[in-house]
Amino acid sequence: MKKLYAALAVLAGVIVVISHPLSLADNGSVDINSINAIAKAVTVYIRPSSGATFGTGVIINRSADLYTVLTVKHVAALNDDYTIRTEIDKTTHKAIYKSDLYDVPGFDLAILQFKSSNEYQLAKLSPNELGNLNTVFIAGYPKSFNPDGSNPVYTIVQGTVNTILPSSQSRDGYQVGYQAPGIGGMSGGPVFNNRAQLVALHGLEKPPFLLGIPLPQTWTVSLVSQLESQAQAYRQQLASRPTPTPTPVAVATPRPTPTPVASPTPKPTPKPSPTPVAVTTPRPTPTPVASPTPKPTPKPSPTPIVTPTPRPTPTPVVVAAAPKLPELLSRVDLFRPSTIQVTAPVLQQECKEIAFGGTRVKNCQYVYSNPGSVRAAQLSDYEQLLQQGNAQANQNRVEQAIADYTQAINKKPDYAYAYFNRGLLLSRDGQVDQGLADLSKAENLFQSQELSLELARVRDVIRVIKQSQRVS
């Protein structure tokens, strides 16, 4: 058995931090170079067009030219256009994504998709166990090398697993606790075991631990398949929607050109009368001395006529009006009932004694006592009403949609999603006061139910409405 002791290695321009001994044995483990090569081939950089945040993802599936990337939900939580940069060839792709459509209810997981004719490798999942997790490798783009997100630096670091949280104590799917140096900002980064298999997705920092979501193979494949089917159904629904009439852009009317005022013709200046010459009787004088002939007095020049220069006609400035509130709110998605029901996998530690160097030592493995499940959800009556209201809203049947949301609220008075959708639709329809009341109710419910992403969205909508009211 070979041991690679603590060192800082630079492999092909990639920083690899080795902070603990790494065993390279004939037990399925692979060397650090191979793990890095596999990680680099499947790791991607994710960033919204606004540049407000960034994160990491891993290529998990392919169907023809459509690739699926798995990441954490908080990396792709903005209602924005995202790009995906594949690390292996530094190519940037436009992401296909819809917030609250491509994510997993109850888990900090989401998928994004992109189209490409290039051949990209897929991450290999661990079949039914995490294996010996004394050593894990986390790939991604740390914030320390890329503070503003404009210059991502791919990094892979080695860490050590310290704990497995019981599912009863974990939140949003985070169960695997580990320690590794300098990975702040690497949310969504793939976590590999020493066989170069994807075993978890990194996402949280809870000192002294970093936390990841375990990804058993069957559970993950089923989850991604359900999300892909849901996304495909949504794209087909979008394609069948009636094309909305574009809102005309208001253009400022140019000021009329002022009619020039005719200036009065100035009267000509009269010529001055010649000065009379006084004649005197000449005295008898000696012989006159010839004097130079006096130059004739020049006539005064006539006063020039000054015509006022007309002012230039101002060029009319055409300014596009700022988007109206209904147009702004039309860009906000309605909440949908989830069509996926997910049960978390449950990890446990199994230990046995093995012979090692003439003595017996404890060897521990992490296995899934319950691999979890993913299945189509059975919608409740109030969820069906929310879904029905969304269908009415997509057809611009506002009154019918509001009636459906109201029925959903009557059946479940703390149903925050129905309050949000009804408030959004009322505000789009010009009933802003009633809409704000519903949105405020949704805000309180999301906060009490600890739904942070939903809370952030409703607060954004309330802020946009209040700003619009101040401007008007």
From TrEMBL:
The protein's superkingdom reads: Bacteria
Instruction: List every stretch annotated Disordered.
Output: 234-314
Q: Where are the TPR repeats?
A: 382-415
Q: Which Gene3D superfamilies match?
A: Tetratricopeptide repeat domain (1.25.40.10), Trypsin-like serine proteases (2.40.10.10)
Which controlled-vocabulary keywords does the entry list? TPR repeat
Q: Where is the composition biased (Pro residues)?
A: 255-275, 283-314
Mind telling me which residue stretches traverse the membrane in this protein? none
What is the protein name stated in its UniProt record? TPR repeat-containing protein
